[in-house]
Each structure stands twice: as C-alpha cells, then as structure tokens.
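Helix-turn-helix domain-containing protein, pasting as requested.
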Amino acid sequence: MSDLQELAASFRSCCFATGTTSGKYRCEPTWSWKPNPFADYDMWYAVSGQGRMLLNGVDHAIGPGFCYVFQPGDRVAATHNPERPLVVFFCHFDRSPYGSGDVPAAALPLPRTPVTIRDTAGIESLLSRLIELSHLRSPDDAAEIDLLIKLILVKWVRETDRGADAGHAYYQKQIVVKVQEAIRFRLSESADYEALAASAGSSPRSVSRLMKTHTGLTLKETITKLRMERAVHLLNETTMTVTEVSAAIGYSDIYTFSKLFKRHYGISPTAMRSGGESFAP
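Structure tokens follow.
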C-alpha cells in the first residue's frame, strides 16, 4: 500500500477539526521558535523568507513553499534571517471519530520529512480558506474544514512522493497541462507555436518533444485533437451551425474542418448534427 493509499484509508475512521491556534504571520526580526513537543498536529507552511529548522534533530533549510505537518511528539526549533523574514501559515488540528467509538490510537501515516510545495498558488489558497474558517468557528463549517484538511494532507503526501520523481517528470507534465490549457483558450486563433510555448516558459521544439513523450502527440497534433474535441461538444450541446463551429475552433474553411473531423471520428460534423448522434471524444 502506498503512502497516499494508507493516508486515504485512515480518513475513513475519523474527521478533522481545527484547534484554537491558526493564522498567517510575518515573523518578528528577533523571532526564534522553540515550542514544547506537540500534543496535536500543526500544519506549517512558509510563503516567503529564509530560515533554518531543526526538526527531531535534523537540520532543514526553510524557503518559499517549505511545508511540514508537525505531529504529536515532534521536537522543533527554528530561526530566520531578519533581512528576509519568514511569512508563514500555520494551523493546529486534531482528529475526532466518526459516529461512536474512539479515535484510532495509531498516528496518522504522514511523512516525517518536510517538502517544498511546487503548486504554491493551490496550497496557499487552501490554507487561506482553512484559516478563515478556523477563525469564524461556525458549526456549519465543520464539514468544509474536515475536507480542506484532508485535501491539504493529500497534496502534501503527493508532493513528498513527487520529490523523488526521476527526470523531473512532474515538471514536464505540468508544462504539458499548461500548454493544453493555453490551446483551449486560443482555439479560434491561428496556431502560434511561439506563444503557446512561451505560456509554459519553454520553446516550441521542447514543448513538442514533451507533448510527444507524455501524450503520444506532437504540438501540432495536440492542437488538432483539442479542436476536434471542442467541436464535438459544440455540435452535441449547442445550436451553433456547422459553419459557426468550424469558425469557432479556428477553421475558416469548412471543407478542411469536415475532412479533419471525419478523419478523427469516422463521421462528418454535418452527419452528427443531422443524425442526432452524440458521443464523447
């Protein structure tokens, strides 16, 4: 069983609730942190700044994206560079049993090593919402708090697993996804390979190679595929004419559009529309 599967299994027996201490703070110039060993869990994330942390006797550098979930019994001491002060999110939380019964005695199956989160915007959005709800302390927010804590824990464990991803495959997949998103927003425009590659901070040649490696399609083939998928959606779910669909996905020549569509799906767009056939690409 993987770390992520083990964590997910532990979720079935308990729900989570925040403690009384949480927030987002800029650490004071003379800040030096040495709390007593933890009795609960503490989600801790560095937004910016520079520092050092001694965690259970092991030294770690703190920088933007540094994330760790302190667990009961953890011993920690931390300092920072006052010229580059740490800005941190933190949120104490603990477990409660579902229904009747006791909270499982075993500790949560969490990594014992900090990780640097790469999707900083995603994790910071979740932490901001969690802390906001923690401060509101409304009983109506309990379910959302439980789900937010679980989602943050899942993202943290997944990021820990990705830290050893050989060849930076995770980064490469992120580039592929970013380019695909950029294509979807530009379907009606002529293909601009330079602009698409720039959206992911890369070159057309590098992007095309990554696309081929991870999807089996070149950049040009990906553009065509995504255009055809959008065409299916528009033909299935809108009242747009075939001519309008063709123009909407970047084909001024309806003949070219129809030819490519039939090559992909074995049926012309006109036949799909008139015959009422509906399918997912």
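Note for the archive: The first helix runs from residue 3 to 11.
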